Amino acid sequence: MTLLMIPGPVALHQRVLNAMAKPMINHRSKEFANIYEECVSILKDVFHTKNDIFILSGSGTSGMEAAVSNVVDGDDVITTVNGKFGARFKKIAELYGNAIPVEYRWGNSVELDDIKKALENGAKVVTMVHNETSVGILNPAKEVAALAKKYDALFIMDGISSIGGVDAPIDKWGVDIAIAGSQKCLAAPPGLVAISVSEKAWKRIEETRAPYYLDMKEYRRYANKEVTQTPYTPAIPLFFALQEALRMLREEGMQERIKRHRRCAEAVRKAMEAMGLELFPCLNEISRHSNTVTAVNMPEGITDKQLRDGMREKGVLIAGGQGHLAGKIFRIGHMGIISAKEVLLTIEALESVLAEHGIGTGEGVAAAEQVLKI
Amino acid sequence: MTLLMIPGPVALHQRVLNAMAKPMINHRSKEFANIYEECVSILKDVFHTKNDIFILSGSGTSGMEAAVSNVVDGDDVITTVNGKFGARFKKIAELYGNAIPVEYRWGNSVELDDIKKALENGAKVVTMVHNETSVGILNPAKEVAALAKKYDALFIMDGISSIGGVDAPIDKWGVDIAIAGSQKCLAAPPGLVAISVSEKAWKRIEETRAPYYLDMKEYRRYANKEVTQTPYTPAIPLFFALQEALRMLREEGMQERIKRHRRCAEAVRKAMEAMGLELFPCLNEISRHSNTVTAVNMPEGITDKQLRDGMREKGVLIAGGQGHLAGKIFRIGHMGIISAKEVLLTIEALESVLAEHGIGTGEGVAAAEQVLKI
After folding, report:
1. Which domain range does residue A164 map to?
2. Do A258 and A138 fall within a single domain?
3. Which residues of A are less than 8 Å from B181 in CB distance?
4. I need a surface site. Which of A2, A12, B193, B257 has the fewest CB within 10 A?
């Protein structure tokens, strides 16, 4: 079986796979309500929030669009961009209002001063991708949330590939709308997106006309019915899977899970360093390397195709660069249920493929083992 | 196990359930492309179309919104309404343009003259729900498609609960955008929606700004890439399931499947009649009883709750009325993989529950058996 080390969809545990094979149920029944409510309840712990959480049947992108379209109606939106998903927020903001981009080269760090300047001009919504999957950087969501609050702006955080794997306390930071994808750190299949909504965001949502399928007011109305439900038929098997994945998360414990992600990421980074490879992101004092995906500059002497085909032949799937970074970087996903074993297998395969092209030091596995204490 | 006789989500075959438990794959791989392409290829036979077909990760409603929002930008839209889903089209049309409703009491028939009059006033888009699930009526899509064509208007058909179970030859009728739901006649789980797009519709789509997640231009662009893909991460396990469900459909044969749906529906209707119950829809010469869901007036002497709870206790789930029809009708879904066996079990349970309240003749099962030739 192929080892999935791409930054989502992630490998699924057999328990989660089995859950999907359960017979179909009525989506307007107490049976479905119980599943939905349990998912929301665990997600509130994962998000560290008392805000409402809703689960939509759609990809992470549908969640990004739900967030923007429910609070923006011709308004200015500060969109921080330092990767593909930040750029996506900008495009969505342009559909519903005016994007005020605070833009950097992909992989470069966000500077707070730039956002502050943009806020001083009066925009009342800020979007940021917490973990920019495309470049392996963890953006300063905490700091930007505080800034947004100071200027009375709503803060929308794409936590699609961070929530459930790294620390992201929604209420403590003051994130008005946070988005988590099912197929990333939550270790469920793709197709669901969880969205938290603050009281402050609700005030704006109530006066905004949203697209029909993404109208959060309807999700709230149906969640508050006598039997909790979704306005439109939900992707039921994915809820079966999410419930099981969230139970597994609860069994592990959120703090343990964050630690595991940190340890696996640290092992990957140390291995890259020991192998003589360069990490792609350019950090400043408030940005960090991602603990869920590592982006590495493509070394000379091998093409993207050679590298990824070679890895695939050894049974490991990794990702390439997106957009203009295609061929220039490669990315290793290490989120969800990934443990030391998968990390080591990946580094071993990588060393072996690179060695075939005369690249690397052969010291990657040992460096990773040291971090993983194996 | 409970027998699911609601009008979607439908019961799934074990083969379809098993398919979902397969390990996760990369959605930008040849492996996923093969699955997507096979689904589209079989769906083209099911739709009887040479038009492009795309599969979106979302409920049927997201497909309805995709259809309208991709061709309407402030335009007049004739929305035929004789049930809940027609009313939904009207609401969606109001979001993107001006709805020109051609409206009837829910369950009453559509009159061609009314649509003709509306077309004479210049609207260039017509929406219709082919099989109005909420009231058990099959609307005259063929006739309305011909009318729309005559007036050079685009015809959008919600075939969510008809396509795959009843005759709906998209190209022959001239349907510009047709929508099928995964969880209805196709007998797959909920969460996917298939949309066909005619050349004429594309011309309009190319000049219309659609919501981000539902922009058909992006679905086309990604489908045409070297490796077929979707623009946003698809709900992969549901594609595994849809592939298997469509293979089963192909094994049965589309004509056989239509016959089976017709026979089961006829058996249900004859049984209702024999039991002294009244079907809800008011037909005219161009509308028909639905062959995928039967709507029945609630008999006196029993409440909706008593009826449906009683049925559930006997292991059969049926549906109530929606909106203002709650408590006034009940609905039996008979689509997907439903056969004579399930129909008879349902009627038997219904007779038994009604008998406990002194209602019915006890002649339902026999009447159904005669149609089913058992």
Report:
1. 14-251
2. no
3. 233
4. A2
